[in-house]
Design goal:
Elements (H helix, E strand, L loop, with lengths): L15 H14 L5 E4 L3 E8 L2 E9 L5 E10 L14 E2 H4 L8 E2 L4 H22 L3 H6 L1 H4 L10 H10 L3 H13 L7 H5 L8 H12 L4 H14 L1
């Protein structure tokens, strides 16, 4: 088993990218109910549950053997339409309570690693997803999601949508204020290299949401979201 290995056999540099491609294909073959998007540096395994996209992202550092595994929970109608946008970013190590595990080496034992990660997805990760698989659950467990600092883990965006979908006026205004005070988001390498040419003016969009949120006008808030969704 991969987790019992003490020594890894490195891949030749020329084999890293082809192996990464095979690694993604093997992973998706081991999972039921997921779809895959893949680039030369990123694997996204995802499914939709209750209008939420639950995703596992596996990022390969450029020119490196190391893989970083993170999870994302994102509204399917999120206002940024790039398919590799991540929200509520949580590293696999945090979910497993193994904070020292920050990366996984892509080596000649890649097939064993694929089996190991597929098992983690079907156990720890899906258990984690189950806790937040509806907007009501997200609001109920919001204290577990609210960031302790302003990192780049894109949590307020998910909380804003949850407050909208559950019509929580006070929470919505609170989360919008937090988001608007520091609108920068963490992005994937794929978003940086190939930005979405349909991206909206985020500040104007949030300003419009805030104007409706002040009076609890959820009808017009939903219209704004629908209009943006039509652009993406």
């Amino acid at each position: 088993m991969w987790e019992d290995l003490k020594v890894y056999k490195q891949l030749d540099k020329a084999d890293i990218n082809p192996t990464f491609k095979k690694f993604g294909n093997t992973l998706i073959s081991l999972l039921d109910g997921y779809s895959i998007d893949q680039t030369a540096s990123l694997i996204k395994l995802f499914r939709q549950v209750n209008q939420l996209e639950q995703a596992v992202f596996i990022e390969k550092d450029k020119g490196s053997y190391n893989l970083k595994v993170k999870t994302s929970i994102k509204p399917v109608d999120f206002y940024r339409g790039h398919k590799f946008t991540m929200l509520n970013i949580v590293p696999l190590g945090d979910i497993m309570n193994n904070h020292r595990r920050t990366s996984y080496p892509l080596t000649q034992e890649w097939n064993d690693l694929a089996l190991y990660l597929a098992t983690r997805i079907k156990t720890e990760i899906e258990h984690y997803f189950q806790k937040y698989n509806s907007y009501d659950k997200i609001i109920d467990r919001r204290k577990e999601i609210e960031p302790k600092d302003f990192g780049l883990d894109n949590k307020y965006e998910l909380l804003i949508y949850a407050a909208i979908k559950t019509k929580k006026k006070e929470l919505l205004n609170q989360y919008l204020d937090k988001k608007m005070s520091r609108p920068v988001m963490g992005i994937t390498q794929s978003e940086y290299l190939k930005p979405d040419n349909q991206e909206i003016d985020e500040k104007s969009f949030l300003d419009r949401l805030k104007s409706f949120a002040l009076t609890g006008d959820f009808i017009n808030i939903e219209k704004e979201i629908a209009a943006v969704g039509g652009q993406n």
